[in-house]
Design a protein that fits this description.
Elements lengths: L1 H11 L14 E7 L6 H5 L4 E3 L2 E5 L4 E7 L5 H6 L4 E6 L5 E8 L2 E7 L15 E5 L9 E6 L4 E9 H35 L3 H21 L1 H5 L8 H25 L5 H22 L3 H24 L8 H18 L27 H78 L4 H27 L8 E4 H9 L8 E5 L4 E4 L1 H18 L5 E9 L2 E9 L30 H12 L2 E7 L2 E9 L1
Parallel strand pairs: 12-14
Antiparallel strand pairs: 1-2, 1-4, 3-10, 4-9, 5-8, 5-10, 6-7, 6-9, 11-13, 14-15, 15-17, 16-17
Helix pairs in contact: 4-5, 5-7, 5-11, 7-8, 7-9, 8-9, 9-10, 11-12, 12-15, 14-15
Length: 623
């Protein structure tokens, strides 16, 4: 990875010069007019400041006048040359140019610039060239007036027309290479986004679109074949592209950091920066491109500090944080060393050809694109690995569930076998007790002991029945066995088991029907009624059966209990739970658990309420 980063840096910072050494060394000086009030005649009377190389004034408005003269000793080659001399002015993003030269006693004017196409083209495309009459250059000065809303960096060279042609062809190749690479990255990012829906990829698609617009605007591609540029100026498109490029860079960084829970202060700062970017767009569309460029430069200086600080405040481990930090440090160095906002005619950076404008062709998105694709690919691999581990965990869980299910089946089979085997000797004991009771009755002996034995046998038999029934409910499906059961008929059958019908108070709606599996329905009703009879204190047992809605039938039973006999609600439907006061009474504490299990099988709901000294059970059956 480190080698890859180093290779990208070497590709990004191509330390070559745009053109070879100048054959003609020219004398240059400048005067800046903020108010745009000078004409050619008045400008000549101003004090010009000499400079060498390129003129760098930063973000300023107004007009800049440049005075140019060829030294006399260097005029001879041009005079004898078949190829005339040409004044080449760069970069192409300069809006309006006017070249004035004194020839034959009068001043001639040649126009150029991105927004002011020349009447006669000297260069092919993507450069501004003016024919330079060197016959009197050692005696008279030539003047160049420059207006632009971009960063004011002006390079003036005097070359032959043949050299200008070669340079123009080289510029066209560079622009096409940069544009093709940026468009290829845009297409690749869109393709990635189609298959891998990611916020980071979406932000990069917007970023790369802004990069393509910026390259087209700064390199002069739009005026060459885009007719709508007569309405929408290239400056507006360039400003829009620069602001969007900055905003999307900040947004992509936030998307990366936000996945690791940074501090809320960091997110507020990012929101503030994006808000400033929105304001900057308003400046661009309002015609304040110079002010927008200056504000965009300020955002570029502040953003690295915010992002590096945000990466240090994350509350979760952030893989590749050193790459993130190094990338923003590099970005900061490019801003500081590459986009000069200082006054002065010459700088040591000129000879190393650092990127000096936002429209530099090397800002084609390849560096950020490489990082984004690496992050997305890493995230995809991590997500696939996580899914694989989850799948493995599910397989292990399924295997454990299968083993558990086999254990449950074995336990159920064992219960079935034991209940069956216990029922046989109990039946024999009951038959023998019946014979002993008849004999004792004939011989006039007491039957109390045998009645006690019989009660114990009956209790054991009931316990075995409950265990067998519980086991049967667990493995039986109630769905699909539903029938219409008359509530009145069901309660008549249940009430036959009890010798004191006056103890019950029934309220059954006329014609009400249960839609349920008969076996499960009877189990629920019988257990609730027997439970109420067993634990009720004085007072009647109230049973109410009504249709609550067209799709719901309610069975409600309530009885009074002693104040200290209310059950523990948290353990009410727990198997084998019994109230401490009834531990010595017959029963296993399995009845309510059977009711709950059977209701779940049927899709019914069981609810318990305590109203004063009454306990209320309600079962709602779906229809």
């Amino acid at each position: 990875m480190k080698r890859l980063c180093c290779l990208l840096l070497l590709l990004f910072f191509q330390l070559h010069l745009y053109a070879g050494p100048n054959r003609y060394v020219i004398e240059t000086a400048y005067f800046h007019d903020d108010q745009q009030k000078h004409t050619l005649e008045s400008a000549q009377a101003q004090t010009f400041t000499p400079y060498r190389g390129q003129l760098r004034l930063g973000f300023v408005g107004g007009e800049t006048w440049i005075r140019i003269r060829l030294p006399a000793p260097l005029n001879t080659p041009a005079t004898n040359s078949a190829s005339p001399l040409v004044l080449k002015v760069e970069p192409y993003s300069l809006d309006s140019l006017a070249f004035f030269q004194h020839t034959a006693g009068t001043w001639s004017e040649q126009l150029g610039g991105e927004l002011q196409p020349p009447k006669k083209k000297v260069c092919i495309e993507l450069q501004h060239c003016f024919v330079f009459d060197a016959s009197h250059a050692d005696k008279d000065f030539a003047y160049l007036k420059v207006e632009t809303t971009a960063v004011r960096i002006i390079r003036t060279d005097v070359v032959t027309a043949d050299e200008a042609l070669t340079s123009s062809i080289s510029a066209i190749k560079s622009v096409h290479a940069a544009l093709n690479l940026s468009i290829a990255l845009l297409i690749l990012s869109v393709a990635f986004f189609v298959f891998e829906r990611s916020r980071l990829l979406l932000a990069f698609c917007c970023f790369q679109t802004a990069v393509v617009l910026t390259i087209c605007a700064f390199s002069g591609v739009f005026p060459q074949g885009w007719t709508f540029m007569t309405v929408v100026q290239a400056n507006t498109v360039a400003g829009f592209g620069l602001v969007m490029r900055m905003a999307m860079t900040v947004l992509m960084a936030w998307i990366v950091v936000s996945a690791y829970k940074p501090s809320s202060t960091y997110e507020k700062w990012v929101a503030a920066v994006l808000g400033v970017c929105c304001f900057n767009l308003l400046l661009v569309f309002s015609g304040f491109e110079t002010e927008a460029g200056l504000l965009n430069y300020f955002i570029g200086i502040v953003s690295p500090f915010i992002q590096i600080w945000g990466a240090r405040t994350v509350r979760e481990p952030m893989p590749g944080r050193w790459i993130f930090t190094a990338g923003w440090l590099l970005y900061f160095l490019i801003i500081v060393f590459g986009f000069p906002y200082n006054l002065g005619p010459q700088d040591w950076r000129d000879q190393y050809n650092f990127a000096q404008t936002s429209g530099d062709l090397r800002f084609n998105g390849i560096f950020i694109g490489s990082v984004v694709f690496w992050l997305v690919t890493t995230e995809k691999i991590s997500r696939n690995k996580k899914k694989f581990l989850e799948l493995q965990a599910l397989k292990i869980q399924a295997a454990e569930s299968k083993v558990h299910e086999e254990g449950l089946k074995e336990r159920r089979d064992l219960i079935d076998m034991l209940t069956h085997e216990l029922k046989t000797p109990l039946s024999t004991i009951k038959f023998a007790l019946a014979s002993l009771k008849r004999m004792a009755w004939v011989q006039g002996e007491s039957t109390d002991r045998m009645l006690h034995i019989n009660a114990s046998v009956e209790r054991m038999d009931a316990m075995i029945e409950h265990v067998a029934l519980s086991n049967k409910i667990e493995r039986t499906e109630a769905r699909g066995l539903e029938e219409n059961v008359s509530a009145l008929e069901l309660m008549n059958v249940v009430m036959q088991e009890y010798r004191d019908p006056d103890r019950f108070e029934l309220d059954i709606q006329d014609g009400v029907m249960f839609r349920a599996a008969p076996h499960f329905l009877a189990l629920i009703v019988e257990n609730l009624v027997s439970n109420a009879v067993k634990y009720a204190a004085e007072g009647k047992i109230k049973i109410t059966i009504h249709d609550e809605t067209e799709r719901l039938t309610s069975f409600r039973i309530s009885n009074r209990v002693a104040a200290d006999h209310h059950p523990d609600e948290s353990r009410l439907f727990e198997r084998y739970y019994r109230h401490p006061s009834f531990q010595n009474s017959p029963g296993m504490g399995i009845g309510l658990s059977l009711v709950h299990s059977a209701a779940q099988k049927m899709g019914a709901q069981v609810r318990y309420q305590k109203i004063d000294h009454d306990v209320v059970f309600e079962v709602r059956f779906p229809r």
